[in-house]
Backbone:
């Protein structure tokens, strides 16, 4: 089930980011407006439009957030491996899991060490 969701998510995200999508959406809006003008925009037309736009926006945001979270985890894993295999201090591994104060302290420590090396 999980791999199926990932496949569907990857497909939807790549489709949502395709360069043809804005043109297709503009065409859809023009057609939707022409049909609405033909029927004098009944009250249900606005309700359907608002509902579809809200649900579509919510769905796309969830898919994009899922893809972003997966990409971020992969990026952090790769960076952790680079840190582990280099001469960098291992205290930088998994820095993203620390609280903001600890990260600021690590950044300050790094800046002090860098300025000492330059002097």
Residues:
């Amino acid at each position: 089930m999980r791999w199926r969701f990932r496949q569907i998510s990857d497909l939807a995200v790549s489709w949502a980011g395709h360069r043809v999508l804005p043109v297709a959406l503009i065409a859809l809006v023009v057609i939707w407006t022409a049909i609405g003008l033909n029927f004098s925009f009944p009250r249900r037309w606005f309700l359907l439009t608002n509902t579809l736009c809200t649900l579509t926006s919510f769905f796309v945001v969830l898919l994009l957030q899922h893809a972003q979270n997966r990409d971020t985890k992969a990026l952090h894993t790769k960076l952790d491996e680079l840190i582990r295999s280099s001469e960098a201090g291992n205290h930088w591994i998994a820095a993203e899991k620390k609280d903001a104060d600890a990260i600021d302290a690590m950044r300050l420590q790094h800046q002090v060490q860098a300025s000492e090396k330059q002097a």
Observations:
- The chain is about 80% helix and 0% strand.
